[in-house]
Specification:
heterodimer, A: alpha/beta, ABC transporter transmembrane region fold, 6-stranded mixed β-sheet, 4-stranded antiparallel β-sheet, 10 strands, 63% helix, 9% strand, B: 4-stranded antiparallel β-sheet, 22 helices
């Protein structure tokens, strides 16, 4: 079955108060800082808005009166105010940065830590890229919103407020002219902003499509050349770039109209002030300094208003991110330890190892029925199976037949819908997940290594392992040669996701890692990937070493594994249809296992003999 | 192959090449921006004259354009009683200015978008035609970065930095000119601050740029930790290492946060101190202006105008330092693109031919090693394939079997002294490359699906592929039934941004893709490895039936896949060690026999 890709719609539903109440727990530690920041922003905008008043004072008291008496004090006051502003500016900018990054950090930690406890159904339903974006990019956007956007709104808002107060105080009639223009400005900005948001989103989408095209053209170079489809691919590419160009120019057309009309509007304000103010000044009703203040304000007030509206529209755009983040944080794990279990055994991050019992290795399925959380069809019904310590269980069946279900239940990655899984005779739920996981070794079909040294990777399941133990484990799975060949031995870097190594090498190292963890229960998912016969043999030998003496569950693809297994479970269409030892199953001629097993043997023998 | 001279020897030559088709838009944009700058300067002048002539009684020289405006609007005395006319003039100029501003932005954007469109198209086309060897030498991520972020940097450089540099310079010249007209001494007071602000901002941005790069690297590391944790979630859980992961992430997160807070502190210090310098400049102008005004050196109107001009240049001057420092980054980006653009495209010999290819194939003494590597990948490999027959190739990892096929398909160039590969006696080096590749259906080991529907993917080689052809090919590849089980059938979107197919499904798609074009030569490069044995047999049977005339090469490490071939060769470490039919090879008791034994014992054979 093709894997479903998460294509969640990015439509913003409006949260009350921009989602701030739901983010409150994250803002709480910084409330004193946020309040100080708001206060400082108000003060700075107060100073900024009062600068034209200094010009007015100079015009009215010195120039109009023709004297420079006391201008020294004036300059001193002016400079002092600038210094105060400098200090406040610096403190508030620092604070905003700190608030942004601290909130950002806390959100990221919270998301990451929550993910460590979420059950696998979440990871099956959401792809890695989607989850990764929640942790890394949503948090950043929310941080910016809580700090810079808030600051912007406070500064611009109080600037507009102060200017209006000053204008109304010094000349009400002239102030009313400018006030009359503000609604027009608001309507204008909202009109354009709405369209620009849509246009810009389209452009971003087209841009990422083009990046995708580049990616395809470069990673698919081999395929493009062998298929000789250069012209077609290129043609499609130019169609995309042309579409992007058209959209981008169209968007600029709007944004150019936008800025032109806003500046035009402030010129209107200027013209109005010049006309009405000029008349008033000629009549001697108004001083020349006051006229100059109005001239400055009429030019300066529209930009903050525009900023406020743009900021609000940005806040609305962040709603999607807030929502997605909250959804992640509030997702509950399908598999969770009960409070009693946590009280005794500790939780994921604070285990109480002193209370942990030793795990012996008996596993039993008792009347287990199970369906996946995202499906309704039962894949197991009233399933019973006893696996005594040391038993090797092989699970065989076609690709996609549901072989990993049993393994998922043993590891408690999922819990039975009904019935119970017993570990050493006790329900798995009676002890913590971490306790179980610390005793399980897991080797994946596609081995996963972490970036870092070989040593770090091998010690992943047993941080205290000595180099000697590491080398022993490597020798057991004949991976010692691989490490010896590497220039820095155990200190060699494996690259991101281990990509400096071949799949076979990664496979062998992950076996060594499993051995070092010395688990009581071992889960193996054999590789089907294309590895040459010699490496396959090495892996094969490694497997037989690793499973010796341990309870093991193996999703098997190779004949030898199956033949030697203590119990073979044959899976078809998600259900277990046959079980038993190899010999028993082979007796059932015409049975599914018999068919599977004989198929290629017949083919080989027929040709060979 | 670093022969001949480079196509773009200098940075300028590449920039000029990219600018083709957009340069006139840039020029138009610049012309309008001059208009905007000039009109912006007129308003303070009007205010100045309004204040001086209409409200006060001072008399001073009036520039020609102001005289024209005054005369046109009815003369000084008329204006004195009809101030609204002045308001109308301000309004008219504002309207004109708005129009200019609109055209300036529009032309600039038309230029910028045309430019980036051309850059992308040219790069993509060039990359498509670069030899495969180039692709394998260069890291994908690096090339993509060059094609996206470096292209963006150059676009910014040409469409924003250069143009704003130009605009700022013009504005400065005009403002300084107007200021000088008002008063020399006051101008000096204002202008001494400019070099200070520009230099301060330049050095700061130069420094902070590196800090930003470091922060980006740190972010990448943090992001990688999260990525690895998520992809390896099973390993983390199975080893019970959640606590370790949490600590690792939190530590890195803390470092990263600290780094940014430090960086922001620097930014805050810069912005506020620069703000302070600008504030001081404003203050100096107000204080000195007041004194000059009281002394009678300048009029009240001139004072007001001067303060406006000073405010006008304060922001652009602060931008100037930043623009200059950002511009230095563009040079690096241009060189990074120059590297791609100067790499040589693959090409045919002058008199390349297109002979029929359904003929016997011969590999004679084929030897090959990579340019930078000294180990030989292939050592004197020779064998023949008769037209219409099937050749099996057995070999482990690193045996050179894929390289052999890449040489045949001319993905790698067979050097003149590396032996020869001929089809019907014609050396493949003399055959047109695209013709050769079209006639060799090479199914890759790791198939690549395009971000399109399955229908488009399978039919990608054929412009006019009909549904029947597609389904016929899909049936032969045992894929038809699988596809029809998808909700959207053949319209299912696959590839990077679509549904993820399993390895076997991908391989079968690639086989169907190849079958659609019905080539006379078919190569399966281990392309059934992820398909189960039953399906493998089905596909081979279908191929035997339907594509009987085609010459076929099957590469595999699975004996069951190869044993029916007319002829089998065994490669080991670049050498042909055994050849013959299945039975003959078994009797030889060599490598083939050994692998056969391992596999028949159940060592490597898949049962599912």
């Amino acid at each position: 079955m093709p894997e479903k890709i998460n294509l969640k719609q990015t439509k913003a539903t409006r949260l009350p108060l921009f989602g701030l109440p739901r983010l409150f727990p994250f803002l709480k530690p910084y409330i004193p800082k946020i309040l100080t920041m708001i206060f400082l922003a108000c003060m700075v905008s107060l100073i900024d808005s009062s600068i034209p008043l200094f010009n007015r004072y100079a015009l009215n008291n010195y120039i109009a009166k023709g004297t420079v008496k006391g201008i020294g004090y004036f300059a001193l006051l002016y400079a002092g105010m600038l210094l105060v502003k400098l200090a406040m500016d610096f403190t508030s900018a620092n604070m905003v940065g700190e608030i942004e990054m601290s909130i950002d950090r806390d959100l990221r930690n919270a998301a990451f830590n929550h993910l460590q406890e979420l059950s696998f159904s979440y990871f099956n339903q959401n792809n890695v890229g989607y989850i990764h974006a929640r942790v890394m990019s949503d948090t950043g956007k929310i941080g910016v919103m809580c700090a810079w956007r808030m600051m912007d709104i406070v500064w611009n808002g109080s600037y507009v407020l102060f200017v209006l107060i000053v204008m109304v105080t010094i000349n009400l009639r002239l102030a009313l002219y400018i006030l009359a223009l503000i609604p027009i400005a608001v309507v204008l900005v909202i009109f354009f902003q709405k369209r620009l948001i849509v246009l810009n989103r389209q452009i971003r989408e087209l841009n990422s499509a083009i990046t995708g095209n580049f990616n395809e053209g470069i990673t698919g170079a081999k395929a493009i050349k062998t298929l000789v489809v250069e012209d077609k691919i290129q043609h499609d590419f130019t169609e995309d770039t042309e579409k992007y160009r058209k959209n981008a120019v169209h968007a600029t057309h709007f944004s150019a109209l936008f800025t032109s009309s806003v500046t035009m509007l402030s010129s209107c304000a200027l013209a109005l002030v010049l006309w009405r103010g000029g008349v008033l000044t000629m009549e001697g009703v108004m001083e020349i300094g006051t006229l100059s203040v109005f001239l400055s304000y009429s030019l300066g007030i529209l930009e903050p208003i525009q900023n406020i509206i743009v900021t609000f529209s940005e806040l609305i755009a962040v709603q999607v991110n807030v929502e997605r983040f909250i959804k992640l944080i509030e997702t509950e794990s399908d598999v969770a330890d009960s409070p009693e279990v946590i009280a005794k055994y500790g939780d994921t991050f604070n285990p109480k190892k002193e209370n942990w019992e030793e795990l012996y290795g008996d596993v039993e399925f008792k009347d287990v029925s199970f369906h996946y959380p995202d499906g309704t069809e039962y894949v197991l019904e009233h399933f019973n199976l006893k696996v005594p310590q040391g038993t090797n269980v092989a699970i065989v069946g076609e690709t996609g037949a549901g072989k990993s279900t049993l393994v998922n239940l043993v590891c408690r990655f999922f819990e039975p819908t009904s019935g119970e899984v017993l570990i050493d005779g006790r329900n798995a739920k009676e002890r913590s997940q971490l306790w179980l996981h610390s005793n399980i070794g897991y080797v994946l079909q596609t081995p996963h290594l972490f970036s870092g040294s070989v040593r770090d990777n091998l010690r992943y399941g047993n941080p205290d392992a000595t180099d000697e133990e590491i080398w022993n484990a490597l020798r057991l799975v004949s991976a010692d040669k691989i490490v010896e060949r590497m220039e820095e031995g155990l200190d060699s870097d494996v690259g991101e996701g281990g990509d400096m190594l071949s799949t076979g090498e990664k496979q062998l190292l992950s076996f060594a890692r499993a051995i070092l963890a010395n688990p009581r229960i071992l889960v193996l998912d054999e590789a089907t990937s294309s590895i040459d016969t010699v490496t396959e043999k090495a892996i094969q030998d490694a497997i037989s070493v690793v499973i010796k003496g341990r309870t093991s569950f193996m999703i098997a693809h190779r004949l030898s594994t199956v033949v030697d297994a203590d119990i073979i479970l044959v899976v078809k269409d998600g259900k277990i249809i046959e079980r038993g030892k190899h010999k028993e199953l082979m007796k059932n001629i015409g049975g599914y296992y018999h068919q599977l097993f004989s198929r290629q043997f017949e083919e080989m023998e027929a040709k060979a003999i | 192959m670093k022969n001949t001279k480079e196509k773009f020897p200098t940075k300028t030559s590449l920039v000029l090449f990219y600018l083709k088709g957009s340069v006139h838009f840039f020029l138009l944009g610049v012309i309008f921006s001059i208009g905007v700058a000039f009109l912006d300067m007129v308003n303070p002048k009007i205010i100045q004259y309004t204040v001086d002539y209409l409200l006060g009684d001072a008399e001073s020289e009036m520039p020609v354009y102001m005289q024209i405006i005054v005369n046109l609007s009815g003369g000084k005395e008329y204006l004195k009683t009809h101030i609204f006319v002045i308001a109308l003039i301000v309004f008219a100029i504002a309207f004109l200015c708005a129009c200019f501003r609109y055209f300036n932005k529009l032309f600039n954007s038309m230029a910028a978008e045309k430019l980036i469109c051309r850059m992308r198209d040219v790069l993509f086309e060039h990359i498509c035609h670069l030899p495969f060897a180039w692709h394998s030498e260069n890291h994908t991520g690096d090339i993509i970065q060059r094609c996206t972020s470096d292209v963006e940097t150059i676009k910014m450089f040409l469409s924003e930095q250069i143009t704003s540099l130009f605009r700022i310079m013009i504005m400065l010249i005009l403002a300084v000119n107007f200021m000088l007209q008002i008063d020399l001494k006051l101008s000096i007071v204002s202008l001494v601050f400019i070099p200070l602000i520009v230099l301060y901002s330049f050095f700061f941005h130069n420094k902070i740029g590196r800090a930003f790069e470091n922060a980006d690297i740190e972010e990448g590391k943090l992001s990688a930790i999260a990525q690895e944790n998520l992809t390896g979630v099973r390993v983390v859980r199975a080893f019970g290492r959640e606590k370790f992961e949490r600590e690792r992430f939190e530590t890195k997160n803390k470092e990263y946060t600290k780094m940014w807070i430090r960086l922001m502190r620097l930014l805050a210090a810069f912005w506020t101190s620069n703000d302070m310098i600008s504030g001081m400049q404003g203050m100096a102008v107000v204080v000195m202006g007041t004194i000059f005004c009281v002394q009678g050196n300048i009029t009240v109107g001139e004072f007001i105008a001067f303060v406006s001009y000073n405010a006008m240049i304060s922001w652009p001057v602060r931008m100037l330092g930043r623009v200059i420092s950002d511009m230095s980054k563009a040079g690096v980006s241009i060189d990074r693109l120059r590297y791609i653009m100067n790499s040589e495209e693959e090409n045919d010999k002058e008199n390349a031919i297109t002979p029929p290819l359904d003929k016997d194939i011969e590999f004679r003494n084929v030897s090959f090693s990579f340019e930078n590597g000294n180990t030989e990948i292939l050592k004197k490999v020779s064998f023949k394939i008769k037209a219409g027959e099937t050749l099996g190739v057995l070999g482990g990892t690193g045996s050179g079997k894929s390289t052999l096929m890449y040489l045949f398909d001319r993905l790698y160039n067979l050097p003149e002294d590396g032996g020869s590969i001929t089809v019907g006696g014609v050396d493949i080096r003399d055959i047109k490359m695209h013709y050769l590749r079209k006639n060799i259906g090479l199914v890759l080991q790791e198939p690549f699906l395009f971000s399109r529907t399955l229908y488009e993917n399978i039919g990608i080689t054929k412009k006019s592929a009909k549904m029947e052809d597609i389904r016929k090919a899909a049936k032969m590849a045992s894929l038809d039934e699988t596809i029809r089980n998808f909700d959207e059938g053949y319209d299912t979107f696959v590839g990077e941004r679509g549904v993820t197919l399993s390895g076997g499904q991908k391989q079968r798609t690639a086989i169907a893709q190849m079958l659609v074009s019905e080539p006379p030569i078919m190569i399966f490069d281990d392309s059934l490895s992820a398909v189960d044995t039953e399906t493998d047999a089905k596909i081979r049977a279908a191929l035997d039936k339907n594509a009987g005339q085609a010459t076929t090469i099957i590469i595999s490490h699975r004996i069951t896949t190869l044993m029916h071939a007319d002829h089998i060769i065994v490669l080991s470490h670049g050498e042909l060690v055994e050849e013959g039919k299945h039975e003959e090879l078994l009797d030889k008791n060599g490598l083939y026999r050994r692998i056969y034994d391992i596999q028949i014992q159940g060592g490597g054979e898949d049962i599912a």
